Amino acid sequence: MKRDLHRVFRWSVPLVGVLLLTSACAGSGPRAASAQGSGAAQQTPAVQPAVADARPISADPAAIPGPVGRREPTTVRVDLETREVNGRLADGITYKYWTYNGTVPGPMLRVRQGDTVELHIKNAADSGMNHSIDLHAVTGPGGGAVGTQVKPGEEKVLRFKAMNPGVYVYHCATPYIPAHIANGMYGLIVVEPPEGLAPVDKEFYVMQGEFYTDLKPGQKGHANYDGEALAAEEPNFVVFNGAFQALTGEKAMRAKVGDRIRIFIGNGGPNLISSFHVIGEIFDKVHKEGASEATSNVQTTLVPAGGAAWAEFTVDVPGTYTLVDHSISRALGKGAVAQIVVEGDPKPEIFDAPGAGGNSH
After folding, report:
1. How far is CA 340 from CA 17, 263, 343, in A?
2. Maximum alpha-carbon separation in the chain
3. Spatial strand order in the sheet of 307-314
4. Rounded distance, CA 140 to CA 143, Å?
5. Distance separating the N- and C-terminal Cα atoms of the chain
6. Of 167-171, 274-278, 289-293, 324-328, which range is least confident?
7. pLDDT class for 356, splitting at 50, 70, 90?
8. CATH number of domain containing 55
9. Number of C-alpha atoms within 13 angstroms, CB side, residue 69?
10. pLDDT digits (tens, 9 = 90+) for 21-67
11. Alpha helices, DSSP H, located in the chain
12. Planar angle of CA 87, 339, 323, nearest 5 degrees
């Protein structure tokens, strides 16, 4: 179905593609199968087994480029490859992701205001469809998507000047655009101002996204994309970095008491607003929507679909800090949970709760 749609609707103007495809894609999921049964008995399709060789899909939140700092503008080459890979969505559930460089989110890009970015985008030869990239940091038609529609095995080059500092989302913009985003094709590009960003001890990269699947958390098997759920904006998974509770336990972020932390926060969407919150911390500074100006002493910040922000705070007390989408059902039931484990000496003058157990949120 999806491959046929890509043959029928060719790229022209992005919004036209969306309008044409919405009704067509709405009938592609299991809900549509039951709704289309006009008197005939409908059978629930058998759940496919999980893919045995599915790989971890979540981008490492600490594996990001270092600060640009003070330097003159230059030309920066970026290489991205669009890949369709089987990954682990949750314990016992696998999923066919569409990705940049094989992870969700794709790699964080980092440049300086005034740099010329030479972006090489290649579509893997074994891909099933075309892909592209729209960078919200680009000034130009389609954010670059018009010139980067790449067929399987093809490579194209986009050159643009990074004119505005901030934190920006990039995503695939090949029709049907919501499906490409919902399958994992998004990331962030950070454009630093000429003076660079203030130094911090730790930087992390966290992006929220939704997955519209025919399986729910707690089930087992290989999940399929559900176009009906996407059209209804009803995801079974809302997660950080591509998978259910991906940045928890052994994969939690790490810091020490006294560390100044900066989190680059993105929301790939494609539909929901994120109410981003760190339980037990207050953001000293938040650059809402990636703006140059900061807001102080923020408890929860809204990050719109297709938007980004960055937050800074200093960890004063050891313990485990939980990151959530404070539309809290998404955290508790759909997987939008991450952790920062902070080590160091207790600070009873700041926080003293000797009776607290280990199972608190």
Report:
1. 41, 11, 10
2. 70
3. 237-240, 202-211, 260-269, 307-314, 283-287, 295-298
4. 5
5. 42
6. 289-293
7. low
8. 2.60.40.420
9. 6
10. 333 343 444 454 443 333 444 556 689 999 999 999 999 999 999 99
11. 2-8, 14-25, 30-35, 177-182, 227-232, 329-334
12. 100
pLDDT at 129 over 50: yes
Provide the residue range defining the domain that includes 309. Answer: 202-343
What average pLDDT does the structure give for the chain? 89
- Percent of the chain whose predicted confidence (pLDDT) is above 90: 83
Task: With CA atoms as reference, report the closest residue to 194 among 165, 167, 161, 159.
Answer: 165
Using one digit for the tens of pLDDT, what is the confidence trace for 249-273?
999 999 999 999 999 999 999 999 9
Long-range own/partner contacts, residues 46-53 (CB < 8 A, 24 or more apart): 47/215, 47/219, 47/220, 47/221, 47/222, 48/221, 48/222, 48/224, 49/221, 49/222, 50/92, 50/93, 50/94, 50/220, 50/221, 50/222, 51/86, 51/94, 51/222, 53/86
171 is in an annotated binding site: yes
Question: Is the domain of 176 the same as that of 52?
Answer: yes
Structure tokens at 21: 């495809």
CA 326 to chain centre: 17
- Count of domains in the chain? 2
Contact partners, residue 61, CB within 8 Å, separation at least 6:
204, 205, 206, 241, 247, 253, 338
Compute the C-alpha angle 70/207/30, nearest 5°: 155
Q: Which two tokens stand for residue 14?
A: 């992005």
Cis check: omega of the bond before 270, within 30 degrees of 0 = yes
Q: Which residue has the higher pLDDT, 31 or 170?
A: 170
6 has binding-site annotation: no
Are 320 and 252 in contact by the 8 Å Cβ rule? The answer is yes
Of residues 158 and 15, the one with the higher pLDDT is 158
CA dihedral 87, 91, 92, 94 (to 10 degrees): -20
147 and 210 part of one domain: no
Residue 136 among known ligand-binding residues: yes
Tokens of 262: 């900066």
Same domain as 22, residue 163: yes
Q: Are residues 10 and 139 in the same domain?
A: yes
**Is 180 assigned to a binding site?**
yes
pLDDT at 132 over 50: yes
